[in-house]
Specification:
mainly alpha
Length: 114
């Protein structure tokens, strides 16, 4: 698989989202906020999810309209360019609320593309 293969980008999105969920599992928002390395790691994992999403072709995106592609890429841009104003409570909410359904949608999309 080449780096530009859409399937590889979907795998990167899914795997990094899963890693973020695992990193947060069993922790509270306050625990994440007081653990700088874990907070930075979560933000970085979300950046990678957004970077990978940015490279997914429109044709592939259209096959999964339930995935908020522009919001994911927009989050990546906010995290990268607004690095000095990251709101950890928003990162926390995304990790706790949005990643599990995203992983499920990505798993479905990957299964369809086999």
């Amino acid at each position: 698989m080449s780096r530009r293969d859409p399937r590889l980008r979907l795998i990167h999105m899914r795997d990094h989202a899963r890693e973020a969920m695992e990193l947060a599992r069993g922790r509270t928002e306050a625990e994440i906020a007081s653990d700088r390395l874990r907070a930075l790691a979560l933000a970085r994992l979300l950046e990678i999810v957004g970077e990978a999403a940015q490279g997914v072709p429109e044709e592939t995106r259209n096959r999964a309209p339930s995935i908020p592609w522009s919001a994911i890429v927009g989050l990546r841009n906010r995290l990268i360019h607004g690095y000095d104003a990251v709101d950890l409570s928003i990162v926390w909410q995304i990790v706790r609320r949005d990643l599990e359904p995203l992983v499920a949608d990505l798993d479905r999309l990957l299964a369809e593309s086999e």
